[in-house]
């Protein structure tokens, strides 16, 4: 029997062993994807904040002679190459997710398309990362790299919610009825969270942590854009507090209440970190914490808005 004729049989046997319902493995892979995308934000921040942005001075190889970092490159090469390796790990998780969803690709297009989007983003992120290196850490390209990561955190959050049946057309968990005003409020909170993150990228591009001593800056007024960046953050806080008021005033229970309280916690944490770093000379450790907070904020805001959108109206 030829190899060509054996392939369909192999694929058929493999498909017969794959789940026909959303099982715990699919759910674990969704959670792992969200964790991995968040960790990628942290490791990407570590690359920049330790001045390791050119730890691998070329792309796709780490050096002209080596695919991986070498001992002579020191800690900067290790940090930069480690961040590159994490991208391959995320690609493996996304590919495995698609395999496990193969028998559900028609029935659960929502999950399959989200997983496909996460996998398709991996080469896109790799290319943007390569352009970042080849342009000597141009701040606008670095910012684009970060924003794509934020979008992937959003997709991964939606994937977790759909996999656990929390939201979407295949919802299996009951949701409390919400006042009609809460749906647009939570949508606005998610939108202003995204705007705050985008303006934060501009602030970062004007700040001192460039990823390398010789990397260019965007030459904008850092202090001015720090204050502009704070405006949508204030609106996020206001919208979250309004949602908290509704939750306790109307006695709303369930996962929406949990989502809003999580969002409040992340928002307060981000505000504390933001003000502390502003008034203390922008220390690298706090900048890294703020980047992690940005990923958590996008996930929490997406989660709350997604649940509000799926909830019945009181």
Q: Can you give the mean pLDDT? A: 89
Class computed from helices, strands and strand pairing? mainly alpha
Q: What does the overall shape look like?
A: flat
Query: Which ranges are low-confidence, i.e. pLDDT below 50, for 5 or more consecutive residues?
Result: none
Q: How many β-strand stretches?
A: 0
Based on CA atoms alone, the radius of gyration comes out at 22 Å
Fraction in beta strands = under 5%
In short:
With 314 residues, the chain is mostly helical. 71% of the residues lie in helices and 0% in strands.
Structure description:
The chain contains 9 helices and no strands. The chain has 314 residues and is an all-alpha fold. The longest helix is centred in the last third of the chain and has 29 residues, at 222-250. The N and C termini lie far apart (64 Å). The model has no long low-confidence stretch (mean pLDDT 89).
Considering the chains and any ligands shown, give keywords for the structure.
single chain; 314 residues; mainly alpha; 9 helices; flat
What's the arrangement of secondary structure elements?
Blueprint (H helix, E strand, L loop, with lengths): L2 H15 L6 H26 L24 H27 L8 H26 L4 H25 L18 H25 L15 H29 L4 H24 L5 H27 L4
């Amino acid at each position: 029997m030829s190899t060509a004729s054996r392939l369909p049989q192999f694929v058929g046997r493999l498909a017969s062993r794959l789940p026909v319902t959303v099982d715990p493995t699919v759910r674990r892979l969704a959670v792992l994807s969200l964790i991995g995308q968040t960790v990628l934000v942290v490791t990407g921040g570590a690359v920049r904040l330790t001045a390791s942005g050119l730890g691998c001075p070329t792309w796709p190889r780490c050096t002209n002679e080596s695919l991986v970092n070498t001992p002579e490159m020191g800690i900067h090469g290790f940090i930069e190459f480690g961040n590159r390796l994490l991208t391959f790990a995320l690609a493996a998780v996304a590919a495995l997710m698609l395999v496990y969803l193969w028998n559900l690709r028609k029935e659960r297009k929502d999950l399959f398309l989200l997983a496909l989007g996460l996998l398709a983003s991996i080469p896109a992120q790799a290319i943007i990362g390569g352009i970042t290196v080849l342009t000597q850490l141009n701040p606008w390209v670095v910012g684009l790299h970060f924003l794509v990561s934020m979008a992937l955190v959003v997709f991964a959050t939606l994937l977790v919610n759909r996999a656990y049946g929390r939201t979407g057309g295949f919802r299996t968990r009951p949701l409390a009825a919400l006042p009609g005003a809460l749906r647009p409020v939570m949508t606005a909170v998610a939108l202003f969270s995204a705007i705050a993150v985008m303006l934060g990228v501009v602030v970062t591009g004007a700040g001192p942590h460039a990823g390398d001593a010789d990397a260019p800056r965007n030459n904008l007024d850092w202090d001015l854009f720090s204050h502009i960046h704070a405006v949508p953050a204030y609106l996020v806080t206001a919208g979250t507090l309004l949602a908290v008021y509704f939750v306790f005033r109307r006695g709303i229970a369930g996962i929406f209440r949990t989502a809003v309280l999580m969002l409040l916690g992340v928002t307060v944490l981000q505000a504390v970190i933001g003000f502390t770093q502003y008034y203390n000379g922008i220390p690298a450790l706090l900048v890294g914490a703020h980047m992690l907070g940005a990923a958590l904020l996008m996930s929490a805001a997406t989660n709350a808005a997604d649940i509000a959108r799926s909830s019945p109206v009181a």
